[in-house]
Design a protein that fits this description.
By secondary structure, this protein is an alpha+beta fold. The protein has one domain. The protein contains 3 helices and 4 strands. A hairpin with a 5-residue loop joins strand 2 and strand 3. The longest helix has 29 residues. It is globular. The N and C termini lie far apart (60 Å).
């Protein structure tokens, strides 16, 4: 048995555990915003705020894709922030989808990829929490 791999393995397991927790938290926040996610269908627009426009771009038995366009946050090119989120009904998780191909992640080092996914999904969690706070105060 090679004991040299044990610390690296435990770090990867912990990082993956934190990532899964972020996915679960994002799902819970989306449920707070939308209620029953299974009722949403492709093409549904669900505005709750004048600045944010969520649109269901794809729905199936097991997944739901929503694109959020936040006009209050502009990029350097004066374009609104766009976030694409995939919800997994069966796992009760939600993740922020990367605009680049997911295959690139598989080619990268596993721990680095997991850390980047965790950072993106932590940002999604903060953004969703801010939207809930805004929604509740209106």
């Amino acid at each position: 048995m090679n004991t040299d791999d044990t610390p690296a393995l435990s770090i990867r397991v912990a990082a993956f555990s934190h990532l899964m927790d972020a996915y679960e938290q994002n799902y819970i926040l989306l449920r707070q915003l939308f209620g029953d996610l299974r009722r949403l269908q492709t093409g549904d627009e669900c505005p709750w705020n004048a600045a944010v426009q969520p649109v269901v771009t794809n729905s199936s038995r097991y997944t739901l894709d929503i694109q959020f366009t936040d006009h209050s946050i502009l990029s350097k090119k004066q374009r609104p922030l766009r976030l694409k989120v995939r919800i997994y009904h069966d796992a009760r998780t939600a993740e922020l989808l990367e605009s680049t191909q997911r295959n690139k992640c598989l080619q990268a080092a596993v721990s680095l990829c997991t850390e980047k996914q965790f950072q993106r999904n932590t940002l999604l969690k903060k953004w969703l929490s801010q939207q809930i706070n805004t929604f509740m105060t209106e």
